[in-house]
Amino acid sequence: MIKPPSPIKIFISTGEVSGDLQGAMLVEALYRQAQLQGLNLDIVALGGDRMAAAGTTLLGNTTKIGSVGIIESLPFVLPTLKIQQKAKEYLHNQSPNIVILIDYIGPNLSIGSYIHKNWPNLPIIWYIAPQEWVWSLGKDKTAKIVDLTDKLLAIFPAEANYFRQQGADVTWVGHPIIDRIKMAPTREKARSALGIAPETLAIALLPASRQQEIKYLMPVIFQAAQIIQKKLPHVHFLIPLSLETYRYAITEAVQHYQLQATIYPSFPQNYQEIQESNNLEILAGADLAIAKSGTVNLEIALLNIPQVVIYKINPITAWIARNILRFSIPFMSPPNLVQMKSIVPELFQENATPENIVSEALELLLNSQRRAKTLTDYQEMRQSLGKEGVCHRAAQAILDLVLTKT
C-alpha cells in the first residue's frame, strides 16, 4: 500500500441539521485518524456550519433547504440544483480521492449517480444510508444505492442486514450518537447550569429542524403545551433552537400560546454555539420531551428522558404517499427503528393532535409503571447501538478504502 500524494482530497455531501451534526463528528474523527497516520487531508463538503467549524471547506450550506415530502420540497428544488452544480464543478476541477455521502437520499443519489457515470473508479462510501430499509418505496432506489456504493457504513443493525442482503459491501459501525452523548451532563449539573430548581417540572419542546415543521408541527406541539400548562400550572417548558433562523417564529408562538417557557440560547448566537453549548444540557435537564421525529429522539432516549414523538406533513403529500405510492412504515422515530419495536409513542399526521399529545405526555409523567417501562426499553435499545468509538471506526474504514484505491 502506497500513501497517496498529500493531501488526500475528500468530498462529503450531506444535508439538513442532522446531516451537518453527523458530518461534523465524522470530519473531526477523520482529522484525528489522519494525524495518527501522518496523513494530510483536504475536506470539501456540502453541509452546514458545524462541518465548517470542524475543518471543512463548505461549497454550499444545505441545512436550510431540507424538507420531507413532495409538496414541501418544491421551494427547495432550485437552491438544491444550484448547490449540486457547485459540487459538480468541484468534482471536475479538483478530482477528489474519495466521496462520502451521508443520508440525504434525493440529492445524494443524484450526485452519486453523476460520479458513478463520469468517474467509475472514484470510490464512494455511503455513511448512514437513507432509510430505504424502512420504507422501501421500490427496489430501484435500493439497487442504485448498492450499485454506486463501494462500501456502506451502517449505523443500525437492521440497516446493515437489509443492504447486505441486497448485495452491498456493508460494515456496521454503530450509531455516532453513542459518541456524542458522552458530552452530556447529569440531570443535576444540567439543571444547575440552566438555573432550574430540582423540584421544577420541566418539559423540553423540540418542534422543528426544518422550515416546514414550523408550519405543521409547532402549532400542535404548542397547543398541547398550553393544555398541559393548564393542568399542571407549575410546569416550565425548555425550547432549544435547532437553527437561529427559527428564533422569531418560536418566540412569537410562545407569546401567542402564553407558555411559561425559556428559549435556548436566550440571545442570538451562531449555530455552532447553539449546538455545543445548549442542546444536550437542555435535554438532560428535562423530565419529558415532546419532539419531532429525528436523530434528536435518540439523544433523548440515551439521556433516559421519556418522550412523545410526533410528525405531520402537508396533507396532500400524505394523501399521495398513502394512496398512490402505497407508503407504509412500521415506525418513524429512531428509538423504535433500532429494534423494530414500539419504545416511544409516535403520533403521525391526523393522530398528531394536541389532545393525543397531552394524553401520551401525562401518561409518561404521571404513570410510574409506564415511565419505568420506557426507561427499561431504552436500556435494551442502547445495547443495539454499538460500542463507543463509532466515528473512529467510520473514519478508519474511509481512510483504509482510499489508501487501498490509491
Question: Your description of this structure?
Answer:
This protein has two domains: 8-174 and 387-405, Rossmann fold, CATH 3.40.50; 183-382, Glycogen Phosphorylase B (Rossmann fold), CATH 3.40.50.2000. It is built from 20 helices and 13 strands. Mean pLDDT is 87; it is low at 271-277. Helix content is 51%, strand content 15%. The protein is globular.
Task: Write the topology of this structure.
Blueprint: E1 8-13, H1 16-37, E2 41-47, H2 49-54, E3 57-61, H3 70-73, H4 77-94, E4 98-102, H5 105-118, E5 124-127, H6 132-135, H7 139-148, E6 151-154, H8 157-165, E7 170-172, H9 177-180, H10 187-194, E8 202-206, H11 211-216, H12 218-231, E9 236-240, H13 247-256, E10 261-264, H14 271-284, E11 288-292, H15 296-302, E12 307-311, H16 315-323, H17 334-339, E13 346-348, H18 354-366, H19 368-382, H20 390-405
Parallel strand pairs: 1-2, 1-4, 2-3, 4-5, 5-6, 6-7, 8-9, 8-11, 9-10, 11-12, 12-13
Helix pairs in contact: 1-20, 4-5, 5-7, 10-14, 12-18, 18-19
Q: What features would you highlight for this structure?
A:
single chain; 406 residues; alpha/beta; Rossmann fold; 7-stranded parallel beta sheet
Count of helix runs: 20
How many discrete domains?
2
In whole angstroms, the N-to-C terminal distance is 8 Å
**Mean pLDDT level:** 87
Structure classification: alpha/beta
Instruction: Assess the beta-strand content as a share of residues.
Output: 15-25%
Mind telling me the CATH class of the largest domain? Alpha Beta
Strand order of the largest sheet: 3-2-1-4-5-6-7
Radius of gyration: 21 Å
The named CATH superfamily of the largest domain: Glycogen Phosphorylase B
State the share of residues found in helices, binned by percent. Answer: 40-55%
Instruction: Please tell me the CATH architecture of the largest domain by its name.
Output: 3-Layer(aba) Sandwich
The rough form would be described as globular
